[in-house]
Structures are given as C-alpha cells and as structure tokens.
Amino acid sequence: MTDILLIDKDPARSSEVTRALHDQGVCAVEQQSIPSVESLTQYACLVILDTIAVDSLKSISSRVPTIVISDQATIPAAVTSMRCGALDYLAWPVAPEVLLAAVERASTSSVPTHKNTLDNFPMIGSSESMQTLKQSIAKVAPTNSTILILGQSGTGKELVARALHSASNRAAAPMISINCATIPHSLIEAELFGLEQYDANLGGNRGLIEAAEGGTLFLDEIADLPAAAQARLLRVLQGQNRRVGSVSTAPVNVRIIAATHRNLAELTEQGKFREDLFYRLNVVCFDIPPLRQRAEDIHEIAAWLLERTCERLNKEGLSFTAESKQAMADYHWPGNVRELENAVERAVILADEHSEITQSLLAIHPTPATTAELDPPMKGDQTSLEDYFMRFVLDNQEQCTETELAEKLGISRKSLWERRQRLNIPRRKTRKRGPRRDDANT
Asked: What pLDDT does residue 113 have?
C-alpha cells in the first residue's frame, strides 16, 4: 500500500493514529495543514482528522479517496461528508481494526481526476433500503457484470446507472443512454448497432454501442426493445457487434446496464421478451423501491431539491412549513422522486423570496391510497405497473386535466398521451370544469 497522508492540527492525536497504522504495517505521513490539492494524487488514501470546509473536502475527494475522522461526530456532519465525496466517516476515538478496515477499503478505490462529483449523482436517503442500495452499488460497480435495474417511473433508475458507471473502472470512457421506447422500431437497430454503407467510399455510421466503446451503454425501457434488436443485443453481450447491412462482426468492449418499469420476468414468461436475453441481462438486479416505501427519505430529498432549485432559480430564504412537510409525508407520490422534484420546482417558482412554501404551493393533496397503491406489485403478481397506471388515470381523469394527470404521475404530457395510445385508455368525453388551454391541442 502506498503512503497515507494524515492531516490534523493536533500532533498528539495524529501521532497516535500514525502508530496504530504502523503497527498494522501501513505507512503514513503526518501533516498539520492541507497541501496543494493538485499534489494529492501521489497518495493512495487521505485521512482527515476533524472536519474541514465543504469546498475543500469536495476538491480533495474528487482526486484522492478520502476518510474523515471527527472527535465531534454527528449524523448531519456524517451525511454532509459523504455527500462531499468522503468514503468513510469515523468517530474519534476509533478502534485500530475499524481504522484499518476503512483504510483498506479506501486504498482499493480509484478516484480519477475526471471523476464526476457526488452532486451529479446524489444518492440521497438514509432509509435502510437506500443504504443497502448504496452498498450494493459500491460492490458491483468495479465489476464488468451486466446489470438490470427495475423500478417505477421516476424512482431514479438512470441515476443508479450513472452512479454505477461513475464508480466503475470505465468512468474515463463515455456512458451513453438511450430510451428504447422513444425510438421508432424501424430505426432503433441502426441507432444502436450502426449502419454499414453499401458504398465503401462513404464509410459506415457508428451506432451507440460503438460510441460507448470502453464505457457503459444504458438501455432504459429495455422491455420496449423490438425482437430483432433483442437478438442482435445478445451478440453484443458476447463481445461482438454487427452493423445493420454488414456481413461481418467486430469486437466491442462495452458494459450493458438495462432498466425497465415493467415486469420483465412476466413478459418473458408470456413470450414478449427473449428468455435468453433476460437471463443474460439479469446477472445483477437492482429493484428500486418507490418513494412511498421509504417515507423517511422524503424530507431529506425535498430539502436537497429545494436547495438546488433555489440556487438554479436565484431565490433565497425559502423553507417548508410544518403543514407542507406533513403533506409531503402523507402523500403517496405516484410519480415518485420525479413528481417530488416537479412539485418543489413549481413551489419555488411561485413563492416569494424569504418566505415559506405552503401545501398549496406544492399543489399536492394527500388522499387515502388504495391497497394497490400502497403495496405495488411484486415480481410474481399479475398486477403490473401498467395496471396501476391505467387505474390511476381512470380514477382521476374526471377531476384532473391532462397536465395535472401528467404532473401527478411525474411524466410529460407527451408520455401520458403515448401511454394512453399503447394501453388503449380513452380520454374522458365530458369535463366537470370548463375547457382549459392546456387541453386544447392534445
């Protein structure tokens, strides 16, 4: 293991940690102040005793795996440190075996200079399910295993995919995302696998798989991938790609991460998705719980969204009222985190500076949720997310406009219209309220 840098203004405490590490055969160097950030890459691990400024921690952790040790450890401070990129947060005094275990974990972590900051991939939440998810990401990310991410719309499946890529050995290469449901079936093969020109002088057109060489390809809504493209994808998972119109294959090195809000196992049993592809994709599976199943995370996510939105919209001094916090806790969030994000952004836009955000500004109205809403379908259930979507639309379309329905579901009006067409859900013929401009051109 290469040298470890210890930074602490207390020489006695720093010497104690150094001796503990030396006793375990780990070489450590003591320093009382933070050196040039650019020079930190010579160390495999950086141990900081006591807390430092958030900006400094962000700069350091973006270059060197970082551990924070504090003699005044608190849960908020630990959360802040982890958000700023610290790999571990330890309370002083710390047992030698605990310190060594943290150092060993940090010494095997790679933090390249191009590393995306945690702000870009905020895995926010202190619930047990979120902590388990973060631990699983840390274990799986360094591997090349194919990953399948399941979860309702708006739960953050692409966020998980980006966190996996950012923490992987492929982070220096591109991650390319494609939503299989948004590309016409007639074009998706050329888009993914590339197109071989019949005129050799023109060359060929690279597909997204070739563009992601050495990196990660994220296939969102994989259940909507046509059968012909599914067969081609099997070859890619074996390390070979054949462009549309080509008679030969070429080797490719790309990691596949797929995601869907639908029950892929059930679709496979019904013959609507290739069984061999399903098993190749389902090497490691992440099932992202809906927001209502981790209610303890709602206020934490909302606070982060409020801070970020205020900064983006240049508004200051906003906070949630006790009533709005209770409303957020009681609401069942059918659109999950995406709906929460929309509600917070709408409230920030409408609120005056240095004021409180009320329930009316959030525009959420908690109502008793049905059993199906509170307990979403498990993998073996016959009820699918499409059934939930259909029930929600049919139960609420008499009281809501299309814009309001889309907002509650956390999707765009275009996505709502497309799902209506696919599931054959007719628009209501009468309205209880007058015509709205936002419904005029639907």
From this structure: 38
Using CA atoms of 306, 310, 312, 313 in order, give the dihedral in degrees to the nearest 10: 130
Confidence of residue 387 (pLDDT cuts 50, 70, 90): low
Provide the number of structural domains found in the chain: 3
What kind and span of H or E run contains 365?
Answer: none
Distance CA 364, CA 346 (A): 11
Secondary structure, 3-state, 35-80: CCHHHHHHCCEEEEECCCCHHHHHHHHCCCCEEEEECCCCHHHHHH
List for the chain the helix, strand, coil content (%; round to 5). Answer: 45, 15, 40
**DSSP letters along 147-209, please?**
EEEE--TTS-HHHHHHHHHHTSTTTTS-EEEEETTSS-HHHHHHHHH-B--SSGGG--B--HH
Cα–Cα distance for residue pair 52/12, rounded to 1 Å: 19
pLDDT for 181-239, tens place per residue? 888 888 899 999 998 876 555 455 788 999 889 999 999 999 999 999 999 999 999 99
Is 235 in contact with 241 (CB distance < 8 Å)?
A: yes
Looking at residue 79, what is its pLDDT? 72
Look up residue 177 and give its two tokens. 């995302």
pTM of the model: 0.59
> CA dist 65 to 45, 59, 84, 266, 287, Å?
5, 11, 12, 42, 28
CB 80 within 8 A of CB 61: no
Q: pLDDT of 337-377, one tens digit each?
A: 989 999 999 999 999 888 999 999 998 887 654 434 444 44
**Residue among 117, 222, 216 at smallest CA distance from 175:** 216
Are residues 403 and 328 in contact, defined by beta-carbon separation less than 8 angstroms?
no
User: Rounded CA gap, 367 and 319, in Å?
Assistant: 24
Residue range of the domain that includes 40: 4-107
Q: Is-contact 304 166, C-beta < 8 A?
A: no
Distance CA 133, CA 231 (A): 31
CATH number at residue 177: 3.40.50.300
- Asked if 154 and 281 sit in the same domain, the reply is yes
SS3 (DSSP) at 251: strand
Name the token pair of 202. Answer: 């023109």
Both 213 and 167 in one domain: the answer is yes
365 and 334 in a common domain? yes
